[in-house]
Write the structure tokens for this entry.
Amino acid sequence: MKLTRRDLLKLLLLGPLLEVEWEQLANQPLKRPQKQENQNRPNVLLLVFDTFSAPHASFYRYFRETTPNLARFAEHATVFHQHYSAGNFTSPGTASLLTGTYPWTHRAFNIKSTIDERMLQNNLFSAFDGSVYYRTAYTHSSLATIFLNQFSNDIEFLKPLVDLFLSNDVLADQLFPNDLNTATFSEELILPRDGRLPTSLFASLLNESRELVQERRLLEKYGEFFPRGLPSADEEGRVFILEDAIDWLIEQTNNVREPYLLYAHLLPPHEPYRPRIEFTDLFNDEWLPVAKPQHFSGEGLAQAALNQRRRTYDHYLAYVDAEFGRLYNTMLENGTLDNTYVVVTSDHGQMFERGIHGHITPTLYNPVLQIPLIISKPGQQQRVDVRTPTSAVDVVPSLLTATSHPFPAWTEGRLLPTFSEEAEVPDRPIYAMDAKRNFRDEALTVGTMTLIKGPYKLIHYFGYDEYEDSFELYNLEQEREEIQDLYESEPAIAAELREEMEAKIAEVNEPYL
């Protein structure tokens, strides 16, 4: 009798009733090689904190002191003040960061997208010379894991996602690690987590029993330290503590073979906002953000409720900053900064305004697009501030050039200021888009696109049934809050930017028509 995956899933769901440790079912990762000194090329540590909105960082002059440790780091680094994601949620934002291309090229603009197979070799890991660099990666994010699995042939050590979780409700992580993307989607049909009825009552009842056992054990161990609950990959899923990920990063910077490329995509401060206990009472102030009108695509949330969510996000961000401080102190002590490019950035930001909470939105305002970028170059002693607009697609070509790799012909990015002797280009066009309603292999017909050029930002909503096509225009130098729409009062500038945007849309759509 042949045992199917469905049969195996049902049998393994009995594990918690028999006190089976689920982690023992996972394939064991390969043993890492020992550290070997090679000072010919610098290391690269690319650290991504998911959903980190730059307007909330105190080193960017946010009202609350959310990031004192990142501010310490910034004093010996290059700080980019107008850095933008290419998308407003994880899939397009991360894919653009890792490939140096816009979503219209890598085509990962739907939720849970994969990168177009035709573009798959054009990525950070394949471009780094594997005969020189030891390439390793980890992420808490299931969406980012999809991409790392696609790139796995060019990663010497890809740490399994489940390794840094305290519990795991996604069985595919452990049962089918070599077929993870397909297995995860299949599991969602059997045990959906969005309110739909399960397709297997047997699997559902046993899985619920397993979750209760896990929850009781974890509350006994960690409950007093995390009164709002443990950090989680979603409202009901895998839980973790950021301390474990930081400990792992410290271990890597101490022991991994050099030179290395280390990519770590950590989920906090992504919601749900669950900081450690000492951060839960911060910011009991009377400060209120600038009031903004409800947006026509918004959820209608009251500003008072959004302000409370903003405060809890700021608590969580302060927790992230404290844990980064532990890592930074270790890097100072062990000399990591002397021969390493350390990059701190994000995949996208977060909204607490206009009736909207989150980032799964058609809007492309600065809170959801403007992300931090701080880069410490090897041995850098002085702070450098860059105020020219830059894009996430610039990170890959800049790191490759800095580590003596050729500039990739396939990138749509440019060298970041200070990574080239050429003069900065203040009027270069920078794009971002939300296209999650489109089919990946068809022309872009529904979505939102923004063009940032010089001080101006044009936003275009197109193809939505709920509201007519519309444009908004803002001068970010004069007014960062994006309240004063100049589209009607500055017709010449609006027409020029609209023509450039529409030409770009026609260009990227042409192969799909």
User: Anything to note?
Assistant: The longest helix spans residues 303-334. Residues 32-166+230-428 form a domain with the Alkaline Phosphatase, subunit A fold (CATH 3.40.720.10). The mean pLDDT is 87.
